Amino acid sequence: MKVKAIRFHAAGEPDVLQLDELDLPEPGAGEVRIRHTAIGLNFQDIYARSGQYPVPTPSGLGTEAAGVVEAVGADVTDFKPGDRVCYISGPVLGAYASHRNYPAERLLHSPDGVSDEQLAAMMLKAMTVEYLMRRCYPVQKGQHVLMHAAAGGVGLLAGQWGRHLGAHMIGVVAGPEKAAIAKANGYEHVIDRLTEDVAERVKAITGGVGVPVVYDSVGKNSFEQSLNSLSARGYFVSFGTTTGAPPPVAAATLQKMGSLYFTRPTLVTYTASTADLRASAAAVFELCAQGVLKVSIHQRYALSEAAKGHADLAAGRTKGSSVILP
Prior knowledge:
With about 325 residues, this protein is an alpha/beta fold. It contains ten helices and 15 strands. The two termini are about 15 Å apart. This is NADPH2:quinone reductase.
């Protein structure tokens, strides 16, 4: 069957994205064919398109979506045509498409009470928060936690999750509008990086002690602020590089600044097994059912507008989460 898909034939700026018509074969053994109803837009899509995460070209793009099963291949028993499903696919790109064949062992049943748009907008981000705050550094009740980009898609869900855990969430944002959004989503304290010194505010909030963990998706521009905000034996969790890669971390620096820990985790590693993938999703679905997690979709783009979505996201013109509608 003929399907529409966004592809790029060489890494570059958003204008390398083009809408192609492709032939999609019948699903093979262990696969299902999904008709996408909503597709997630994430910063890691920009990394792939720009060449920061090298991928063989020509390539599809996108790692999460929601939709409906249309057909199943041999040996598929967990899914049937008509099932609502969603997925995050790690390094396997191709979600920016009207239809896709996908391995059943990596697929998730969509929960009742959560729309396809909400699932596409939140699954990768919410599962990122799950592994960051429950497994990479397990946040405890009463702890101060510093989160950069607090008004972004991951940041807003982290604020909600942290509040649920009983943590004192400190969010870093750019400007009063984003500060108000962060405040409404679980952040007890919000720091405007455009007008305030992040580390100074953190020390003031924590009585000079600093925070036991910093979650930093910004990278180069926030590196020094993050280091200087940590308490002794604190954890610097670097999980993104929206402003470029942070500088190399010398072992002596970690020693001198209080026996710090530095880690660069990825969701791919934390959901590598099917068991880990489904356990992470189950934790997200449970908090959705409890009303703890609420996704804020502020931008919607047609499949043909994928380049505009990339440009808006890279320029910081977006708030909360964005979705692509095929």
